[in-house]
User: What shape does this take?
Amino acid sequence: MAGRRKSRTLTEVELEFMHILWREGEASPTDVMRCLEEDGRPLSDGSVRKMLSILVAKGHAQRRQAGRAFLYRATASQERTQAILTGDLLSRAFGGSPALLVASLLENRRINSKELARIKELIAQHDRDADEGKQT
Assistant: This one.
């Protein structure tokens, strides 16, 4: 029987830890525990250390020794990780179709007028950038 295949993407808990590392820049396990408690999600010291070790083993985080403690930081930017996760979702759930992804968002989520205006501006900017690319 083959071993379980490693996930290409971050789990929900791994992503929660990554958000802390991105926000803090560098954090000790104690810092991560404090952040989780502030977010209403207290975890034991052992659980926090285990999850940080998993992130290091998967290459999502690095650790360095600072005195007697270890400090952890993300190895990839939040933007890069979001791009990878979005691409994975787009390909697996929507057959690679950005239009289907956007349609699903519009049909299944309440999007306020401010967010909708921001989306329209992003599309307009994308169109302008594409037009400039054609001219050069």
